[in-house]
Automatic annotation (TrEMBL):
The protein's name: RING-type E3 ubiquitin transferase
Lineage: Eukaryota, Metazoa, Ecdysozoa, Arthropoda, Hexapoda
4Fe-4S among keywords: no
Pathway: Protein modification; protein ubiquitination
EC number: 2.3.2.27
Length: 471
């Protein structure tokens, strides 16, 4: 059951009396005054309370939003899945300071208050500061703007090469970009450098590097204004010219042109060449230069992504976008046409393919496969708050097993297959999978056992396998 089915007044009764978050984190404590406290909060001292097991049982089948919903998380989970997800939610905002080794992560709206409370000495009183050129060093500072936005100013000086590396990032909305003018002053001389400051949550590099003499710089002033090098209207008009005629997405450089003003993106051109078809398109470097100045929206915007950036940054973003569109991982065996974002994948599997979804209490799951079937046999394991697809097939008297991690971010995990027969005589095959990039069933050709080696473990026409996953 989804929380959206409740009225607003009913939803208020499902809120914690202390933190105002939903009562989705067990244990739930019922106080003497009838207030409920979620498991994230401590009950008031010296006030009688007991565990509200009736509420917990009633809400086991109710899906709640993540507490980081306001920060972009669209995941909805059952209460038993909430603690692990909230602990590792990718939408939690980390402290932007790297030099203090702060482990804080929380709501984006709490970031400014966190910095004020925990790192007050990192704030600059005003936008001007001295730059020491006596020795090599790295520094970072915070500069508050309009009591809302924090600018993170990083500088590094290499005395051996006389190089200064300077960057500015901001804590504003990730769709905003700040234009910064950096003025370096020494005596009655000064020079200016301009740079773009992106949200530090986008992990973009806006470094400015320049060479200085020992007496060239004494003070630095950072001036910021929210602006863009190309107006929004002009940006949209120029992007519309770069729409690929095949996929209808905006073409990232390199852009290929054909007669009749036809545009084709790099990916679509590669698909044509892979089919052995001729391609008479010409790459225009002048068009590429213009395209590199434009702000591109993410191609997964129809699924909810609001990310916007220059072309080079967008290419990296598309590899790990949380709104990346996925086909159903069981598409082939279940003939399922579903397509959606990663955050909706688990809900889809539970609703449509629950018989092929396993949720182990530990790290191991037992399965039975047909030994002589030439068709793919597969399913999905939900463990460590991640989804893993397992596949089994036989080809040329070899039995193949593959486990792949679905979604982002990719990580390293260990997978072990243990075969056993009715007499519990066991044999195991273990291997490491590193950053799975492809979705091919036989992507790991070394993950198989010959049929002769499998025969002792075949009971009738069945192979019993235990799959263990560990991060």
């Amino acid at each position: 059951m989804d929380l959206d089915l409740f009225t607003e007044s009913s939803k208020k009764s499902l809120r914690c009396a202390t933190c105002s978050n939903y009562l989705s984190y067990f244990p739930i404590r019922l106080l003497e005054n009838s207030d409920n406290i979620c498991g994230r909060c401590l009950p008031p001292p010296n006030q009688p309370h007991f565990r509200n097991t009736v509420y917990e049982k009633a809400c086991l089948g109710l899906k709640f939003p993540c507490i980081y919903e306001e920060d972009g998380c669209r995941t909805k989970l059952f209460p038993l899945d909430i603690p692990q997800h909230e602990d590792t939610c990718p939408c939690k905002t980390p402290c932007p300071l790297t030099s203090v080794h702060c482990s804080w992560k929380g709501h984006f709206s709490q970031l400014l208050q966190h910095c004020r409370s925990n790192h007050p000495n990192m704030f600059l009183d005003h936008s001007e500061f001295d730059l020491d050129l006596a020795k090599s060093h790295e520094n970072e500072s915070l500069l508050e703007q309009n009591s809302k936005v924090v600018l993170v100013i990083r500088r590094k000086y290499d005395s051996s090469q006389k190089l200064v590396t300077f960057s500015v990032s901001h804590s504003g909305d990730r769709s905003l970009k700040y234009f910064c003018q950096i003025t370096f002053t020494s005596g009655d001389r000064n020079f200016q450098i301009e740079c773009d400051a992106y949200s530090f949550r986008e992990n973009k590099s806006g470094d400015v590097v320049f060479e200085v003499n020992d007496d060239a710089v004494q003070r630095v002033a950072v001036l910021e204004s929210q602006t863009s090098s190309v107006s929004s209207r002009m940006n949209d008009e120029m992007l519309s010219v770069l729409k690929c005629s095949d996929c209808l997405e905006f073409a990232l450089p390199p852009v290929y042109q054909f007669s009749g003003n036809v545009i084709r993106c790099f990916e679509c051109r590669e698909k044509i060449l892979a089919k052995g078809m001729s391609d008479e398109g010409m790459r225009s470097f002048s068009v590429d230069n213009v395209a590199n100045k434009l702000d591109y929206p993410c191609k997964y915007r129809k699924y909810g992504c609001t990310f916007t950036s220059k072309a080079d940054v967008m290419k990296n973003h598309l590899k790990s976008c949380v709104y990346l569109a996925y086909d159903c991982p069981l598409r082939a065996v279940a003939k399922c046409e579903w397509k959606g974002v990663q955050n909706d994948l688990l809900s889809h599997l539970r609703a449509e393919h629950n018989h092929l979804l396993s949720t182990p209490t530990g790290r191991s799951v037992n399965f039975s496969f047909l030994a002589n079937s030439k068709f793919e046999q597969c399913g999905v394991i939900y463990a460590f708050n991640r989804l893993f697809k397992y596949s089994f097939t036989m080809k040329l008297f070899k039995h193949f097993w593959v486990v792949e991690l679905l979604g982002q971010p990719q990580c390293t995990f260990k997978c072990e297959f243990k075969l056993y027969n009715a007499k519990k005589i066991s044999n195991s095959l273990s291997f490491q999978q590193m950053y799975v990039q492809n979705r091919q069933l036989l992507g790991f050709s070394n993950s198989y056992l010959p049929h002769d080696q499998i025969k002792p473990f075949i009971t009738g026409n069945t192979i019993n396998v235990t799959i263990s996953i560990d991060l």
